[in-house]
Specification:
The protein contains six helices and no strands. It has helices at about 5-40, 45-50, 60-75, 75-80, 85-105, 110-135. Helix 5 (about 85-105) runs antiparallel to helix 6 (about 110-135). The protein is elongated and about 60 Å long. The chain starts with 6 loop residues before the first helix and ends with a helix.
Length: about 140
């Protein structure tokens, strides 16, 4: 009998993939919280780091930072139990793809945000796919 047909082997692979997906998703959310907090509490500093003009005032970066924190907190159930809470995972992946398109269409300093979201969208999509497949196999 091959290892791929063994129930214990399949469960260990599922647990490993679940743990990997949780770590990647958790890292993405922690980085989003840090970015959101910087934009919320230090908007002028955040704008200078990104290279955006501060002429519009510090209000919109603070609002964007608060929104990012809120959206990040809505994804926490997807990290805690990605098998049972699939909706936050799907929304996280699709939302990142939408943001990649939005940031890329604006170009310039927004390309760093596009790269960040594209990187994590790809990792989360691959990880979530593996989690779902292995869960179905067990």
């Amino acid at each position: 009998m091959s290892n791929s047909l063994s129930l214990g082997w399949t469960r260990s692979v599922a647990a490993r993939r679940l743990s990997s997906h949780r770590r990647i998703f958790g890292l993405a959310l922690i980085l989003q919280l840090i970015i959101g907090a910087i934009f919320l509490f230090c908007p002028s500093y955040a704008l200078s780091i990104v290279g955006l003009d501060t002429a519009m005032g510090p209000e919109w970066p603070s609002i964007w930072g608060a929104t990012l924190i809120f959206v990040t907190m809505m994804q926490v159930p997807g990290v805690l139990n990605p098998v049972r809470q699939r909706y936050p995972n799907v929304i996280a992946i699709l939302g990142r793809i939408l943001m990649v398109l939005t940031f890329a269409s604006h170009g310039g300093p927004f390309l760093w945000f596009a790269a960040f979201d594209a990187f994590f969208a790809l990792l989360l999509a691959l990880g979530f796919r593996h989690v779902v497949i292995t869960e179905l196999m067990t």
